[in-house]
Amino acid sequence: MMRQFSLALGQLFVVFIVQEAIVNQFRLPGGGFSLLLIFTLVWAVLSLPEIAAFIGFISGLFMDLSQSSSGPIGHWTLLMIAACYCVAYLGSGNDSLSGNPLGFTFLTTSAVFLVELAFVATGALLGVGSGSFGQILLTILGVSIWSLVVTPIFLPLFSYLHSLTFNTRSVI
Amino acid sequence: MRRGGEGRSRLLLIILIVTALFLITLDLRGVGLLEGARQGTQTVLSPFQRAGSVVLTPFKNFFSDVTHLGRTQNQIEKLRSDNAILRSKLLQRKNADSQLAQLKNILDLAGTAGYKIVNARVISQGSSQSFSQTVTIDSGSNAGIKKNMTVLSEFGLAGVVKEVSPNSALISLATDPSFRIGIRIARSQQIGILSGRGNRSASLQLIDNLTSIKVGDVLLSRGSIANRPFVPGVPVGFVTAVDNSAGAIAQSATVHLYTDFSSLGVVAIVIGGTAVNPGDALVPAKPQPTPVPTVTIYVSPSPTPTK
């Protein structure tokens, strides 16, 4: 189990570096996409709820440690634990959602949309400025649409890495 | 057995949530250890970001050129194989020229006011998943940059230094929703507070309600004690709309920021302000309309009428 979590930690770190050093270099319209967020949510759908929560914890911690994160450390961590647990709970045993690429993409994109929305709502409670209503709407929609485009492209790779790490046979 | 598994799962979830809440509490209480963790992460990331910036520059330029491909599609396809190496060099040159032009304008701006500056290249843009507007630059505390220093672009104010690590720094842009700056209006010397709104238009709140504000008024930074976070006299933007709603406590307006944040390649960090306030010296000149030549035709009647 420790070996699996070490491997997961290493992969999350690599995705975090790719996000910060490569994806963020491109000034994509609508706010672009978060590869780490998509990666984590894809893994969460494929995992058991408690493992998903742990993956969400690590991933959220990386997001919090990013210099571009505007909230306090722990903000993304809390959201990602909840999001991954819920996504895993919805995905486990529901083959119509997690068993086919379309359902998978839909679940992941919806989760991205809701996580961003939750970030704004909880950020408001914690005193984090998020901009005007129009700008928030534009960013959330932009990030969600980008996720809808990017998820199917990376889905085979991410699910393959998950199967390698956790020795499961389910590859989308 | 099953119940035991569920119990452990629930316990793990509770432990993770409590840890996250604990981190939030510590951070909100300003525990330095967590701030150090963010800076440490940036120190680790900055070499990767610098490498990514160098490697991806031709691709970034390629994406920006895609919009112009339609017009010269045939020509590009015909010459692609011959010109691949040449184009790559040209793209790099184009990027260097653009950065040079930005740098020249920044130096002009800083030289006029007498600011002591350090130039830096933008190596990464902050992810907008957190709704913040930040960029990372390739210079840090080793170059004399400290937290809360003014950041200039070629057009005026770009932002303020938010975090510093030895070889990089995080800049909070003027568009960031949490960005606030004290300004004065160049025409009337009225003072107010400008707030970022997530895009290039910002909102202005005047302190005094007795005087009026007009569309086109130029806003300059008011300056802070010991020139940090803001040096005085930096052009910020101009008023595009005035909100004259009855019953408002103070007048408010919409401001268009001078800096084009989408093409920010080079910035300057003011590490030493001037002893003398530059006043309105940095107010950008209004664009001069191109003179249109007028043609005057004189017609004189001929002495003999034509039949």
UniProtKB/TrEMBL annotation, chain A:
The alphabetical list of record keywords is: Membrane, Transmembrane, Transmembrane helix
So where does this one cross the membrane?
35-61, 73-92, 104-129, 136-161
> What protein does this entry describe?
Unannotated protein
Naturally occurring in which organism (per UniProt): freshwater metagenome
TrEMBL record, chain B:
Q: Report the InterPro entries cross-referenced here.
A: Cell/Rod_1, Cell/Rod_MreC_2, MreC, MreC_beta-barrel_core
Query: A GO BP term, please?
Result: regulation of cell shape
| UniProt keyword Metal-binding, yes or no | no
Q: Which UniProt keywords are present, listed alphabetically?
A: Cell shape
- Keyword Thylakoid present in the record's keywords: the answer is no
Record's Gene Ontology CC terms?
A: plasma membrane
The Rod shape-determining protein MreC beta-barrel core domain sits at 127-270
Q: Identify its protein family.
A: Belongs to the MreC family.
Name of protein: Cell shape-determining protein MreC
